[in-house]
Amino acid sequence: MNIRYLLAIISTTAIIALSGHVLAQNAIYYKYVNKKGTNVISSRIPSEYVKKGYDIVTFDGQLIKSVPPELSEEEKAKLKAENERLKQLKEWDTQLLRRYSHPDDIEAAKQRKLSQNQSRIGLIDLNVEKINAEIDLFQSLAAEDERAGREVSEETMVSIEKFKKDRELELEKKRQKIEESNRIIEEHDRDIARFKVIRPNQK
Questions:
Q1: How far is CA 88 from the centre of its chain?
Q2: Mapped to the 3 state alphabet, what secondary structure does 57-73 carry?
Q3: Which of 20, 57, 144, 201 is 20 to 30 A removed from 2 (C-alpha atoms)?
Q4: What CA–CA distances, in Å, run from 149 to 19, 136, 152, 203?
């Protein structure tokens, strides 16, 4: 064996060894915990461990990427609910910034709506007063009939019942308007509080 042939073999072996080392440096490995709780580093990861989370590392153990465990159904539901909450919060913020430039604007809008609602309640109160007057009138007619020993007419009784029902309808409208006023206060106060959070310099 001559020297040139020997040098060629040595050179080829060195190149192969160097290539293998370079390939090893460029390869990625998976680091996971097996059933025994032991850390394992391997070029492959069994499918049963993928859902439990793992790390992708270099040949010398340097972290490239960490893959978290797959979420449980309960965790997925919580994450979905949280994402929906954040989405609604973003929409709320967008609407507030689009409609108002200062918390005082929200307070003014609240007072306008409350004033309008109070005016409607005032009209309802007037209607109730008129209905009460009609009821008093027909009840007086019924009392006169009774004092005179006459049977109260059916027309009088029907009228009294009708006006009582009308009064109850008006009172229900009033209750609804009062509830609406309470909602107006609560919603606008929440808007004011939220606006101060997203624009803290405009308190």
A1: 5
A2: ECCCCCEEEEECCCCCH
A3: 20
A4: 124, 20, 9, 73
How far CA 6 is from CA of 9, 12, 14, 19, 75, in Å, comes to 5, 10, 12, 20, 65
With 0-12 / 13-18 / 19 or more C-beta atoms within 10 angstroms meaning exposed / middle / buried, residue 203 is exposed
* CA–CA distance, 132 with 74 (Å, rounded to integer): 59
Cα–Cα distance for residue pair 76/4, rounded to 1 Å: 68
Q: State pLDDT tens for residues 144-197.
A: 888 888 888 899 999 999 999 999 999 999 999 999 999 999 999 999 999 999
Q: Encoding tokens for residue 81? A: 């609910």
Q: Name residues whose C-beta falls within 8 Å of residue 147's C-beta, 6 or more positions apart in sequence.
A: none
